[in-house]
């Protein structure tokens, strides 16, 4: 292994680095198999490494956008990007490319990275090494193949994460934070649902990247930053596991104000949770979000241990991940360290599982359709025999054809359904640019059409408004048109309370009015109601994308914009 931060490099090192600077990135990793033999790689033990930049450049295909796992990982104005990489004889890795100005001193960067690299716990993702080359600062960790908690909670297709699994994830994260705290690492940068990853067994692990954090020298001298910020962030994660909703951390205290656990509970759970446990968890959330409450990470672990109900069940069973899918996954670093070679075009587990589920669902629906179309009419035995023989032959041929296609046509990368960014609608483009005036014009023009198209045809929805309520609605619309947003908010609120129905245009216009008045939390609550009531209305998703962007949640905003565009293109 080579290094990038040597204080006294040898002549051989200098020669090698000069050669690297004048070469194009190699097609394969320069990590030699002879070097790997020095270590107990089979046992999963990997020495903390000072990587060559060229190795990481090659492993990530020259930092290809196709290999990006997440962006803006550090939050704010950070340009940090996490890539998936792969070494030919090592396996998949995660490479975080940091914003250079945050780490001007390579010695401090190396010191912090080595400190985090010394952590060894089953609930913390292993930091394998780092690289600093000129202004480049990179961190390298093992790759977690089964997505993030954010994706499981907010973007999972099909059934929602079960309550016992949510409780296990909460405990896993608390255990990770407690271990880090006991090791002297009480600070964590931007702790969120995106910081929680799932390994090959479906167990939750805390990303190690947030532990390597640039802090000012006076804070470094003091020993650590305020650990209560970690407790607060953990509370926001618990709240997201209760509600199943994307909630900006700054909005969490207001979200729980005057509410209870049952009222906020994720409706996708359909009542399948312990009310007592939910109340206990909600009380813990309340304590975490109160600055005056001094909770320690040990307190978190102790409270969450009492909420575990399926202690012996493996995580992949609790989360309804089949054993076959788990065995098919080979993208974990620990598994791949055993192998001497890894196919560079291997399909990641999460994409394979998604394809298997879609194929199985399609096959099941086809079988049900064929069964429903079979006529119960009687037929002579000879005709029935011939028909059955023909159907059996046809089914056999079809099965062979499908089997051959499944074998021959599995792509190296699963083609996910994606929106075409070049075909963004005017509303989508306005949300992307956060152009409130353009969105205002759109909502002015689309009121009647949207209400007729989206409202369910029930008696309650179409009951005529009273003359007084109609007048209030007209006053609200007039204020909205004239951009008198405080007045519009007051009148739209009266309309909403008078109808007891989520009228699309009323909530959409009030949401935008809140944004004009910089009341992002209230806008977020309106758009949550819109999505709950009308899950197929693209405008609601566009507005959610805008709200999340305003709340400095760029990753969530981008995913919501993608969903909105797909919904609109399908309609």
UniProtKB/TrEMBL annotation:
It catalyses: L-threonyl-[protein] + ATP = O-phospho-L-threonyl-[protein] + ADP + H(+); L-seryl-[protein] + ATP = O-phospho-L-seryl-[protein] + ADP + H(+). GO terms for cellular component: plasma membrane. Residues 322-427 are annotated as: Disordered. It is an enzyme of class 2 (transferase). GO terms for molecular function: ATP binding; protein serine kinase activity; protein serine/threonine kinase activity. It is found in: Cell membrane. This is Serine/threonine-protein kinase BSK.
């Amino acid at each position: 292994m080579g290094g990038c931060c040597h204080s006294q490099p040898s002549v051989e090192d200098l020669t090698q680095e000069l050669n690297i600077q004048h070469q194009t990135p190699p097609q394969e990793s320069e990590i030699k198999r002879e070097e790997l033999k020095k270590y107990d790689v089979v046992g999963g033990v990997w020495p903390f490494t000072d990587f060559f930049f060229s190795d990481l450049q090659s492993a990530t295909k020259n930092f290809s956008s196709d290999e990006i796992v997440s962006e803006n990982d550090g939050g704010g104005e950070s340009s940090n990007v996490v890539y998936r990489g792969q070494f030919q004889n090592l396996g998949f890795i995660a490479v975080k490319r940091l914003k250079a100005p945050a780490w001007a001193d390579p010695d401090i960067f190396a010191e912090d990275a080595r400190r985090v690299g010394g952590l060894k716990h089953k609930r913390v993702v292993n930091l394998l090494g780092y690289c600093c080359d000129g202004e480049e600062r990179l961190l390298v960790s093992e790759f977690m193949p089964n997505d993030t908690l954010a994706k499981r909670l907010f973007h999972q297709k099909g059934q929602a994460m079960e309550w016992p699994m949510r409780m296990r994830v909460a405990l896993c994260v608390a255990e990770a934070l407690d271990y880090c705290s006991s090791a002297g690492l009480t600070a964590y940068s931007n702790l969120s649902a995106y910081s929680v990853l799932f390994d090959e067994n479906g167990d939750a692990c805390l990303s190690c990247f947030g532990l390597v954090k640039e802090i000012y020298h006076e804070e470094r001298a003091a020993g650590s930053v305020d650990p209560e910020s970690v407790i607060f962030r953990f509370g926001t994660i618990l709240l997201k596991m209760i509600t199943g909703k994307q909630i900006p951390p700054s909005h969490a205290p207001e979200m729980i104000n005057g509410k209870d656990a049952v009222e906020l509970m994720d409706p996708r759970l359909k009542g399948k949770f312990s009310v007592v446990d939910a109340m206990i968890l909600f009380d813990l959330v309340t304590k975490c979000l109160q600055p005056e409450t001094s909770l320690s990470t040990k307190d978190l672990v102790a409270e969450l241990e009492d909420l575990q109900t399926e202690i012996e069940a493996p995580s992949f069973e609790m989360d309804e991940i089949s054993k076959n899918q788990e065995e098919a996954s080979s993208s974990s670093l620990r598994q791949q360290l055993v192998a001497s070679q890894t196919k560079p075009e291997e399909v990641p587990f999460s994409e394979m599982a998604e394809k298997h589920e879609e194929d199985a669902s399609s096959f099941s629906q086809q079988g049900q359709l064929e069964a429903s179309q079979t006529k119960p009419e009687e037929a002579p035995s000879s005709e029935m025999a011939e028909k059955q023989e023909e159907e059996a032959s046809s089914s056999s041929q079809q099965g062979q054809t499908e089997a051959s296609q499944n074998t021959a046509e599995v792509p190296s990368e699963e083609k996910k359904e994606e929106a075409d960014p070049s075909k963004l609608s005017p509303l989508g483009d306005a949300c992307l640019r956060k152009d409130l005036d353009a969105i205002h014009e759109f909502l002015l023009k689309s009121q009647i059409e949207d209400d007729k198209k989206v409202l369910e045809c029930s008696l309650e929805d179409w009951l005529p408004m009273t003359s007084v309520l109609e007048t209030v609605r007209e006053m609200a619309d007039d204020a909205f048109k004239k951009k008198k947003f405080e007045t519009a908010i007051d009148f739209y609120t009266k309309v909403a309370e008078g109808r007891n129905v989520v009228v699309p245009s009323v909530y959409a216009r009030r949401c935008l009015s809140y944004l004009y008045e910089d009341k992002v939390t209230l806008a977020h609550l309106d758009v949550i109601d819109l999505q709950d009531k009308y899950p197929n209305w693209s405008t609601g998703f566009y507005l959610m994308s805008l709200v999340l962007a305003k709340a400095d949640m760029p990753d969530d905003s981008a995913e919501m914009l993608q969903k909105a565009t797909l919904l609109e293109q399908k309609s």
